[in-house]
């Protein structure tokens, strides 16, 4: 295969529209070939806006493309992945792969049996800041890693319809940080999670909107994750990795490089959401997927990486419910 890889996009909500914009305008190796949503009005609207073919039939989407990006609700990822793999199509799948472990493993088995490329949407692995820090950490420039800290906080909670199918706080939110923990530091052997619902709407769903998760890594390092669904001041996604030789801090909260100064006060913008913070990471992950399809390069996030992060999220959920530290090994 040469040239750009035509990608069919399934699911055109919050995340799907970000991927549509990336594929239509920011990617170099991938291009938007066709859009699909179970809601024909959504498919028609995005197709018209971006001047690409649209369909309300997944089978028709698969007939038109060699590769799909799946950004529909989490509970639909595994069936859409399995159907695509059976049709010999390469799959980029938003996180997490599924709402339960058995379905996740079955979807991974299906893509492995089909021999198609499969990549999961942990976009920080494709962000230039994170990738640059990761390269230096992996080269040993921190020395022995002793401590990991990461904060992921949304400014405002998503709508209740999304929350009810999200899999809960740890599977939906913390899973990003758990993947980063494994990527930057190594395997996690124990998770101790605490959660709270500051907004009663979350308690009514049996969910939480705030959490602190303490990690023990196999190499002896300690870690702490803090997450919030509604930080109110803006979107925050920052990490620190401390080692015996240096500390890496990744934090780029501003959208623009302007500081506005008035007497005694300097102010700057803060990203309001993941779309403002990471437009280029979302494009880069789709380009990496397209390169894996076209050139055979390894995808930056494999299905097995996603399963490991999923197991850690299950451990966090179990720990929050029982009040005890949990090893991810119990889910394997
Ligand atoms: N990587 C990230 O940073 C990130 C951020 C947000 C969401 N997500 C993930 O993206 C996925 C979608 O989340 P969202 O916030 O965009 O949800 P959303 O509810 O805004 O949008 C979902 C869209 O999928 C459509 N849909 C429903 N069933 C479908 C089906 N069977 N086939 C095709 N389309 C279908 C809906 O009509 C809707 O347009 C979730 O799995 C979520 O975890 C990832």
Describe the model.
- It is a single chain.
- This protein is an alpha/beta fold.
- The protein has two domains: 112 residues, NAD(P)-binding Rossmann-like Domain (Rossmann fold, 3-Layer(aba) Sandwich); 176 residues, Dihydrodipicolinate Reductase, domain 2 (2-Layer Sandwich), CATH 3.30.360.
- It has twelve helices and 14 strands.
- The strands form three sheets. It has a six-stranded parallel beta sheet with strand order 3-2-1-4-5-6, sandwiched between helices. Strands 8-9-10-7-11-12 form a six-stranded mixed beta sheet. Strands 13-14 form a two-stranded antiparallel sheet.
- Helix 4 links the parallel strand 4 and strand 5.
- The longest helix is centred in the C-terminal third of the chain and has 20 residues.
- The radius of gyration is 20 Å and the shape is globular.
- The model has no long low-confidence stretch (mean pLDDT 97).
- The structure holds nicotinamide-adenine-dinucleotide (NAD).
- The site of nicotinamide-adenine-dinucleotide has 23 residues, from helix 1 and helix 4.
Topology:
Layout: E1 5-10, H1 14-26, E2 30-36, H2 40-50, E3 54-55, H3 58-64, E4 67-70, H4 74-86, E5 90-93, H5 101-114, E6 118-120, H6 128-138, E7 145-153, H7 160-164, H8 169-184, E8 188-196, H9 200-204, E9 210-217, E10 222-228, E11 236-243, E12 247-250, E13 260-262, E14 265-267, H10 274-277, H11 279-295, H12 303-322
Parallel strand pairs: 1-2, 1-4, 2-3, 4-5, 5-6, 7-10
Antiparallel strand pairs: 7-11, 8-9, 9-10, 11-12, 13-14
Helix pairs in contact: 1-11, 4-5, 5-12, 8-12
Bound molecules: nicotinamide-adenine-dinucleotide.
